[in-house]
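FORM 7B - TANDEM STRUCTURE REPORT

SECTION 1: FIRST PROTEIN
SEQUENCE AND TOKENS:
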Amino acid sequence: MTRRRKPPASPLPPRDGIDPVRVRLPQDPDGAWGTVGDYLASRYGVERAAALLAAGGVVGVEGGVDGGESYEAGRYLWFHRGFGDEERVPFEVGVVWRDERIVVVDKPHFLATTPRGQHVRETVQARLRRELGLPELQPAHRLDRLTAGLVLCVVHARDRGAYQTLFRNRRVVKEYEGVAAYDPGVELPRTVRSRIVKERGVLTAREVAGEANSESRIALVERRGGLGRYRLVPVTGRTHQLRVHMNALGVPLLDDPLYPVVQESAPDDYARPLQLLARVLAFTDPVTGEPFRFESRLALAQWPR
């Protein structure tokens, strides 16, 4: 078995906290692309490719790339993409802990964790790179854009694998807090197990028949009138898992725009965030062996401290 070689390091630094796009020129058995410019035009459009090349924005390991250069399959190219306008999420990222290897932060509601789709500049990764002057900073895991709370980031790209492994091997204790209706008919605490599937292009995840692939431990912590504050501990990490399980119990999280009913696409309502907070992260540092336990400093709007 041949191991694929690791791509070379980018010769372009991040711009505005965003990494450049990396492209590896594919095989061309039919000889469709005589030059680098031909390939870029076929992939990104003639006008965009011409603009990138004219500005000297495309580089290879050896330096700037001319569109007339002969096509060479397997060659790596980098360039910075253009960004559309993004509305600034009007909340700050709070730093809970920082040392030479990791940064633990409180992500606000509505802010994406990493650049993806229409959310590029307005992400935890891009903001912290700019604000803290840490060009390699990367989150070691993801938190839904609509969920607030603790996110563990690594300062150097070389350390990301070690911390990602903690999450992959379920060696991180994660505890969430949610606010939903109080229903005396729902027996708690309990462990909820089900099979959850999430299809590409579909906003919601759903439970289906079959072997369980998700597990959540749910307990009622406190009641105030018709509302309850719940402790939610995900044993697994399926997409929207806690939201799906609370909805299945008949007590969906307050201000959830997807469960039980998908709301029509509309601008974010910053006054009504999803009532879900990643409150606790606990783990043993894979580099030093030091035990860590972090608690969020945020509070849910429907359950102020």
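SECTION 2: SECOND PROTEIN
SEQUENCE AND TOKENS:
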Amino acid sequence: MTDTPTTPAPEAVRAAVTRRITVVTAVHAPSARFLPDAYASLCAQRLPGDWEWEWVIQEDGTTDEVRPHVPDDARVSFGQGRPGGPGVARTIALARAAGAYVKVLDADDQLTPGALARDLAVLEADPAVGWTTSRVLDLLPDGSTAGFPGDPEDGPLERGAVLDHWKRNGFRAPVHPASLCIRRELLLALGGWMALPASEDTGLLLALDAVSRGWFCAEAGLLYRKWEGQVTGQASHVDPVEREARMAVAEARARALAGLTWAYPAGLGSAS
């Protein structure tokens, strides 16, 4: 007797012929007007081989002000939920993320040409690298850009290097968390973004650094928009009492993770 061949489910067929990177964006009403620029930067990406992108947009709230700015594109999904900050929005958006890798793109920022392809090249070439970051340029209101000295060299970031630099330099990381691209399973294992009112992305960066090697791409991968309404420009963001608490819990989490025997990939042991 011969076995009767079975027809694979459509999802299995699709997975066999395409590979996907998920771009996750948290948005609130004031930043929604910048979504078309972010979308244009996504459409300009050229991915290798059979790779494709999907864009998962999650509103931090349930207003009627964001949806009109969401592109009508089958690759784009839009969700809403009760307000909890950008970290909550990004984390709950992971329920709709189908990609092997998750790329962060804030609603008011833009990817540079080739950014996704460079991330994929690193992560596909070395399974021991859990995440990538890249050089970031400020996008000023007049359309010009500005960079800053002090970026790492192009190449690997060993475990613990980010936390060490961050601690020695007044809680300033050597790389920008807004440019992160992360292996999906690693991001989920760490619980997504931290439950903080701000610096939730820095907290994730420090956690990633505690358990896995990263990579810094010296070519600019992100335009970080500077504008009057951005959250990091508000007075509450630099309140010294809250900032000290945010930094303390982010550091404590990273050090606790570094002290465990778990690492990515499994079996690397704790960082020295």
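SECTION 3: OBSERVATIONS ON SECOND PROTEIN
The radius of gyration is 19 Å.
The first strand starts at residue 19 and ends at 27.

SECTION 4: SIGNATURE
Preparer initials: ____
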